[in-house]
Each structure stands twice: as C-alpha cells, then as structure tokens.
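Section: Multi-chain targets

For targets with more than one molecule, the full set of components is provided together so that the structure can be written out for the assembly as a whole rather than chain by chain. Components appear in the order listed by the source. The example entry contains two components.
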Amino acid sequence: MKQASQITDELSLRVLPRQRMRRRLRRFLVVALAAQAGATIAALVALQTVWKGDDRPDHSPSVAALALDLLNRQRTGRITSVSKEMLDRVADAPSIEFACVIDDADRVLLTGGDSGPDLGAYGLDPAREVPVNTQTLVAAIPSKRLRIYESRLPERFGVRQSVLIGVRDLGSDRAVLDGAAAAGIGMLVTALIALPLVWCRIGGWSQGLHRLHTSIRRLALNAPLAPLPVTGDDEIAYLSLAFNDMAGKLTASRRSLLTANQTLEERVRERTDELREVNCVLERQNVKLEELTETALRFTDDVAHELRTPLTVVMEFASIIEDGIGGSITDQQREYLRFISDASGELARLVDDFLDSSKLRSGTLRVDRQELDIDRTLDAIWPMLELRATRAHIALRRTVAAGLPRVFADREKLGRTIINLTINAIKFSRAGSTVTIGAALDDELGVRISVTDQGPGLSPEEVHSVFERFRQTASGKVARTKGFGLGLSIVQGLVSLNLGTIGVESTPGVGSTFSFTVPSYEPAVIVDMFLAGVTERATAARVGVMLLECGDGGGSASDLIARLAPLLHPYDIQLPTNGAVLLFGETSDIDRWSDRLRREYAETDDLRADTTPVSLRVISAAIHGVDEVKERLLMHFDIVEASRAA
Amino acid sequence: MPHVLLADDNPELCQLLEIRLKTLGARVTIAHDATHALYLMSRNPPDLVILDIWMPAGNGLAVCEMMRDHAALCEVPILVITGDSSDEARQRVTDLGAHIICKGDDLWDRICYFYVNHFKLQSHPKPGRRAG
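Its structure, encoded as tokens over all components, is:
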C-alpha cells in the first residue's frame, strides 16, 4: 500500500484541480455571454449603418404613379398645390412629408404636403433657382429619415418637369430599432440574471466532477475509497451513484480474487510439501534399495563362496572312491558314486550359474574387451571341454574357418559362453554322438560361433519358448524343465556383453545348433553392434562419447584402457585410435556419466580427457538418430563410410 | 619327490587333496591357518604351495606376499584355490604372481593338470577317470 501523501500527490498530478475546472467553465460562460452581447451590439451597429445605405423599401411604383398624376395635373393646370388627400392616397407610403414639382431648372412649381411645404426646412428655396437633387435633400435632413423620390415626366409630354416626393418611413424604422433595442436589453438582462446562477452551478459541477475524478483514480490505484455523496437529482448525482455501484462491485471482486489467490498459494504450498515428503520417502527407499542390492549381492557371493568348499569335498571324495584309491569297489558302488558325482557336479554348476546370473543382472561384472584370436580362445578352453566330452562318451570336433579376423570381446566371458553352450550340448547328446564347435565369418556381425549337437532337437514352439524362458528366468524364476534353466539366460547375458546376438536352429530328431556372434575387431562393426544393443535395451538412451589422449608419460593406449577398465560400466566401450582412446557408453544421464569419468580421471595421473563429452540421443524408431551417432563415433577412426542408400 | 604344502582351514579338503597328491608321488605337508603355513614353509621350503584365501590367522594372499619377499620362497609356484570366483579375487591373485583355481567340480583335474605340467610328469599314469 502506498503512503497516503504519495497517493494524494499522484492524484493531484493527474486530476484537473478544482479551481482550474471552475475557472474554465466560468470562463466559458463569460465568453459565451460576451459573445452574445457582442453579437447584439454588432447587430445594432450594423442596422444603424445599413439604414444609411441603399437598402430601402421601394415605394417607387406608387410614388411614381402619384408623381405622374401630379405632373399631369400641374401641366394641365388643374392643381396648384398638392393636397393632403392626394398624398394619403399613396397606400404604402403613409407619411409623405411633401411633394413638389420642379421644372428642369429646378424651380419649384408646385408643392404640397402635411406641413404645408416648409421647403425651407428641407433646404428648398422656391424663390431661388436652387439646384436641387435628392442627395442634397437627404443629406440635409438626416434626422428626419426622409426618402426622396424623383420622378421625371416622360419625354413625350415635351415638358421637362420632375416631382420630388419625400416619404418618411417612420413606423418600420422605429419598430426595427425598438425591436433591436428591446432584444439587446432583454439579452443583457437575461445574461445578468443567468450569470450568477450558472456561475454557482459551475461551482457545484466542478466539485462533483472533481470528486468523481478523484474517486476514479483512487479506485484505479486500489487506494482506500469512500462512497461518493449523492445529493440532488442531477447528472452528477446519477454519475456518482453509478460510480459507487461499480466501485463496490470492483472492490468486492478484487477481494474475492485475493482470497482465491491466497487459497491457491496455500494449496500449492501443501502440495509442494506433500511432494517433498514423497520425494524424501522415495530417496530413502532408493538408498535402501541400493543397500539391499549390495547386501543381496554380497550375500549371494558369500553363499556361493561358502557352498563351494563342501561341494568340492563331496565331489572329490566320490571321485577318489571311484578311482579305487580307497579300496576296490563293486560295479554297483561305482554306479551309485556316479550318481553322486553327477548330482554334485550339477549342484556346483547351479551355484556358478546362480552367482553369474545375479552379477549379470546387477551389472557388476567387469568387462575387459580386447582383440582376440578365436583359435587361441578355443585352445585355452579345449582341454576342459574335451575332458567332459570324453567322460560323457561324446566326440568333440572343431571347425574354424580359415582367415577369420580377430574379434573384439572379453576373453573370459567368450570362453564361458562357449563352455556353457558346449556343456549343454554334451548334456543333451547321446553317448557316441558328436558335438561340433564351429567358427565362421558373418559379414555384418563379425564372427559367428556355433555349437552343434546331435541331440533330440527342439520343435519350433520349443525354440520360441527357449528364448522366452530366457526372459522368464531373468525375472527370477528358475525353470528347471528341459534343463535349460539359468544356463542359457547367462549365456544370453554374456553374448550381449560381448556385443553379439544369439540364436538357435533345430530340427527335431536331428540336433540343434546354438550360435552367437562376436564383432570382428573393426570399429565400424563394433559400433554397429554396440548401437544395436543400445537400441534393443532402451528406447531413448543416450550415448556419451569421450576422446582420451594418452598422457605424455609414455603410456600407450592399451595401458590407458587397462587402467580405465575398472572404472567403467559393463556397457562402456573403449577402442584405441590414433594414440588416443575413444570411450563411449550408454547412459541415461550424460552429465552424470561424464562427471563420474572426469572425477576418476582427476585421480589418475597423466591422463588427459580432451574433449567435452558429446551427448547424442539415440532413438530406436528414428534411424537417422542411430546413423548420426555412428558417424560421430567413426569419424575418430578416419573411416570413410561408403554412402548408404538413403 | 616333490614337496607340496597345503594350507586350507577345511580339514576334509586337505585330506582329499593329500590323498590325490600322494597318488602322484608327492610329499604333502598340511597347515590349517596362514601363520602355521608360513612357519612350515620357512622351516622347510616346499616345491609347490596350494593355498586357500580365506583362512584364520591371516589370509592366503598375505601369505603370497610374504613368500614373494622371502628369498627362499619367492620362486615357489603358488596355486590359490578358492570358492571366490570374483574378478577382483582373480585380479589380486594374478597380481601377486600366483595361479588361481576355483573350487568346483574340476578342482582336482586342474590341480593335477598344473602339477603334471609343472613337474613335467608326462609318464606318470593319470588317475582312472580319464580312461572312460
């Protein structure tokens, strides 16, 4: 709320001050009346001047007739004077002062009229030959208001005589003048009476208008407002009434708006508080969840850990007895021991699967992708697989195509994938059959590794449900039917981590081939497979990209990679390029991803993170999104991509 | 006759490994905790050490470290057997220059494989299992 004085100042600036308003109106009144008076006076003056001019009623026809008549009579000697009756006969010239006939020498021959022609008074001297003309006459008798008519006898009479007739138009003159004077006086009187009345009225009006103006301004400024006094029945009163009504309604609506606002604010505050509470709860739950996950993981770790020792004891003693070290055994005992070995072996594998599965699901597996040679990878795991195959009386074969490129994968996980699939194949094969491990080039995806068995095979529905069960088991159910269980879900996880895809082909009664891909060690293929995985896992993931230059401390790209590996998430990829390492990964929060990495780098010496991470949005439905990401990634490898068909 | 030192807190496990190792012609010494193992080792340096990680009175990895710093023991190969299959364990064992073997259904197979390769015992008959 403004200060009262401030409001008054404002109002005084904006409102027409009362005195000024009054003065204006009164000035207007004075001017109007002055104009009126002035007009009246001017009219009178004008009449006065005009009367002197040529604007006179024209009596000439009747006067002319009289004149002619007079002339005739004189000529004929019938009259010697002009009688009054004669003059009175002129209908519309009631006051003919005189009439006289003069000859062309201006000698008066005949006169007449009311006052017996006092020609002397008119400046006429009958005795003398005075040149007489109308102008002279009129000029000589200004006060008498005479109109002198001169009529000349027409030439045909042969005599040159003229008649002068003086006509006084007293009646109309006076009437006009009287009228004008009366009007003027009337106006002045009216003015004099009206002036004080209007003067006071103006005072009242200006006050009323001023008050109204003030109130309007106050209303606009939301200042305190008193209702206007409504006195009398005039326009100002009506206006004030209407204003009061409006002001009342406006103030009421303003007040209700304010209340509504306050209510709204309160409600917003309530909701915000609620939200904050909910947020807190969620945060706490989040923290708890994280802790629980940690605990669960550690628990599974510990459990697996603890289970292994007794398991080993069981298995090894069974095998010791089986081998006859504890003494000779019967065939029956051998068979029973076999059961013990098999079951405990199964148990051990289950423990492993269980542990791997939880690690895969929680994303805590560390992935160490390198350039690998397929042959050598197979060499490393071959003895162990051969052992198992031999024990199950199955032949293990290997067909690796020639000239296979090196692949980009985590060695241990690649090995485990092959082992898991092979163990499965062995499990489902009859004694005497063959399990074949093959490796061939798959053009776009890299190298395809397959494990073929000659087991019972799977029907098309089973093929489908095998993969469905992947997802079912991933949700926590350990489906033991058909013995696939966790094993294949782990395999799928491992294949995925190695940027590959997995599939199965099967003919019932003939056998099955499980195969998976690993990207060849080529940036284009690696990036393709990485992006394929990203778009499969999330519809709107982001790909963060960082280029890390190797420090001048002599470290190589592979050193850098090895050092960074523990800091990364399973789906972060590192590729060496041109003396630097290109690091890219899938993340839902680019900033958090890059911040984390920067923090880790800051603690590692001689690492320089050169580029600011680039955020690239990958949307599975929009192909151009994926292509753009691919381009941005591959440009670090100086690869010129053959332009694809649009 | 190769001398093998076994250190694991599980007595049955030690016993079964002892049985197996004896069939390969090894002489076996057993300890059930880290301190005892070190003591025995320093008294009588073995040709091969098989250790568990999680033991009372110390820890298999600490033993590895100590062995590394010990003049007589730094060349002795170490097999670390453990139920812990985590990558960290693997990494730590490798960092210490030892070999890791996970407890599982092929524990003896792997130990045997290593033993045979290390002591170059090609001619020694392998246990009956492999004969099918």
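The interface with chain B takes residues 301, 304-309, 311-313, 315-317, 319-320, 322-325, 344-345, 348-349, 352, 355, 365-366, 383-384, 387, 390-391, 393 of chain A (CB under 8 Å).
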